[in-house]
Write a structure and sequence with these properties.
With 224 residues, this protein is α+β, with helices and mostly antiparallel strands. The relative contact order is 0.17. A hairpin with a 3-residue loop joins strand 2 (41-44) and strand 3 (48-55). Helix content is 58%, strand content 11%. It has a domain at 4-31 and 80-198: Butyryl-CoA Dehydrogenase, subunit A, domain 3.
Length: 224
């Protein structure tokens, strides 16, 4: 009974990873401007950008952007190439893949716990789920590192990065990363435990292993 605590811990960690990843994924608070800065940039998420009568100096139309809009909306089409550089697009892709993997692994954990699918006592099932969470953890780490670094050093992106700070949505994604690695570790240890139990059982069931006994060595004298 004590061994099932590993899978139960993985279920809790996996559900926590999905919850925090989903909130960080959807909420538009990855990057915000300090209130004291009175910046025309308000806040930014993976899918939403908010401005206060912001004008992009390279926009030939001279359009002013105000309020919050979906990044891929027609409103931001004139500044899309600046607003969504390649590295930001990479973060969106990795975060989307991570969320899909987390959701799939969490569903498998629940069905495995109930004994319907991907049984929690099957080595390959546990190893597969562990690999999924290790993969999502890697994607989360890359996303967090890339966004954190680029939002601070990319001078071609938002001007005056010293007036901005990483906000709570970003923090939620970081927390999701901890849940992911804890779930991956629990499942990895559980898979190793199952493999060890199976190896012990096979040894006990092997008649050659149980019945073999070394007989006495008989030597015959040799005469010249």
């Amino acid at each position: 009974m004590k061994y099932t605590i590993l899978n139960l811990c993985a279920v809790v960690m996996g559900l926590g990873a999905v919850l925090f990843h989903l909130i960080g994924f959807a909420a538009p608070h990855w990057l915000e401007s300090f209130e004291q800065a009175h910046s025309r940039f308000d806040r930014l998420g993976l899918w939403t950008a908010c401005f206060n009568n912001f004008g992009y100096d390279r926009d030939a139309l001279g359009k002013m952007y105000d309020g919050c809009h979906w990044i891929y909306s027609y409103e931001y089409k004139p500044i899309f190439a600046w607003l969504v550089p390649n590295w930001f697009l990479a973060v969106q892709v990795m975060m989307t893949l991570g969320l899909i993997i987390n959701g799939g692994m969490a569903l498998m954990l629940l069905t495995g716990q109930a004994g319907f699918f991907m049984d929690k006592e099957d080595f390959f099932a546990q190893a597969f789920k562990a690999g999924g969470f290790w993969t999502s953890f890697l994607l989360t780490c890359l996303s967090v590192a890339l966004f954190g670094i680029k939002s601070d050093i990319d001078r071609q992106w938002f001007p005056r990065p010293d007036q901005n700070y990483l906000s709570w949505s970003f923090a939620f994604v970081v927390i999701a990363g901890f849940f992911e690695i804890f779930a991956a570790m629990c499942l990895t240890f559980d898979a190793l435990r199952i493999k060890d139990v199976e190896a012990r059982r096979l040894k006990k069931q092997d008649p050659g292993y149980m019945g073999y006994k070394m007989g006495p060595v008989v030597t015959h004298p040799q005469y010249d």
